[in-house]
Amino acid sequence: CPYDEVARHSVEAAVLRASPLPYQGFESVFSSELTLNFKVDQ
């Protein structure tokens, strides 16, 4: 991960705030893995 500890914590907190994600009715397409790709403009 190219981010520092503060940025990683921020991303993790954002994902946890989005919890719970809608699941009921989508069991057939649910995956327990999630890949997020970020592009940082420097």
Brief account:
The protein has 42 residues and is an all-alpha fold. 31% of the residues lie in helices and 0% in strands.
Primary descriptors:
42 residues, mainly alpha, 1 helix, 0% strand
List the helices and strands and how they pair.
Blueprint: H1 5-17
Please describe what this structure looks like.
It contains 1 helix and no strands. The model has no long low-confidence stretch (mean pLDDT 82). It has 42 residues and is mainly alpha-helical. The chain starts with a helix and ends in a 25-residue tail after the last helix.
Q: Name the shape in a single word.
A: elongated
Order of H and E elements: H
**Could you tell me how far the N terminus lies from the C terminus, measured between alpha carbons in angstroms?**
16 Å
Q: Unreliable segments (pLDDT under 50, ≥5 consecutive)?
A: none
> What's the number of extended β-strand segments?
0
What profile does the largest beta sheet have? none
The amount of beta strand, in percent, is under 5%
> Mean of residue pLDDT?
82
Tally of helical runs:
1
Radius of gyration: 13 Å
Structural class: mainly alpha
Proportion in helices = 25-40%
